[in-house]
Each structure stands twice: as C-alpha cells, then as structure tokens.
Design brief:
Blueprint lengths: L2 H4 L8 E8 L2 E8 H13 L4 H16 L1 H5 L2 H17 L16 H5 L16
Antiparallel strand pairs: 1-2
C-alpha cells in the first residue's frame, strides 16, 4: 500500500518559496512543489497566472471571511484549495478536462450534497 505514496518524486514534496505582490504589498508564500503544480493548473483553466489566482483567492477569502481569515495561515488555505480541487475532480464534481474553466461551473451544483466536512453550512443553518 505505502509504495503508492513513498514512490512519489522527492522533488514534489520539496518546498519552494515564491515572491508576489498582493495589492502592491510584497509577500512570499512557501508551498511544496506539487501544490505549485496544482495551482498552476487551476490558474491556467481560467486564463490566469498563479499570482493572479492567488490574488483572487486572497480577495475572495477576505470578502467572505474577513481579514482575520487571511491573516491566519494563507499557505494552508492554498493547500486545502489544491486538495479540494483534486478531491472534487475525483468525485466528478469538477471536470477532469482542464479546458473547462472553473469560473464556468455552477458552484452550488459542485458543492451540493457534499459531506459536512467538505463544505461550510449555509448561513442560518443549524450546526
């Protein structure tokens, strides 16, 4: 069983820091190379660069959850985005065809009936 995991290319789990600007503020993000590859695929699907995608995710997270969410561990958020993307592809909720932009998908349909651990409860729903 473990051979499936231990035979990963060691370069895939090496960390790489990338510098970028978020609204003119210089910052750096450190992720494993495999996550950078997934972010690159996500960005390309919607005709963006990785930096543009990260800026958009940053802005949308801030708008949805507030500055505190972004001030937390944004790198972890990006890792979770990558994992969610791959898991949703595996469940057939996001097409494997990378020619289909993520922005063209209906988010409600993608997220409908997922396990509670995969999606936040709608506003006003009982916990």
């Amino acid at each position: 069983m473990c051979e499936i995991f231990i035979r990963a290319n060691p370069q895939s789990y090496e960390c790489q820091a990338r510098s970028l600007r978020l609204h003119g503020v210089a910052t750096s993000i450190r992720l494993e190379n495999l996550f950078w590859e997934v972010l690159d695929e996500l960005a390309q699907r919607d005709g963006m660069t990785v930096n543009q995608l990260i800026t958009r995710l940053h802005d949308e997270l801030t708008a949805h959850r507030g500055d505190e969410a972004v001030a937390g561990n944004f790198s972890s958020f990006l890792r979770v985005c990558c994992l969610r993307y791959l898991m949703l592809q595996g469940k057939g909720r996001i097409p494997a065809d990378t020619g289909v932009p993520i922005g063209s998908l209906d988010a409600r349909s993608v997220l409908d009936s997922l396990p509670p651990s995969w999606v936040e409860a709608p506003v006003g729903a009982a916990h």
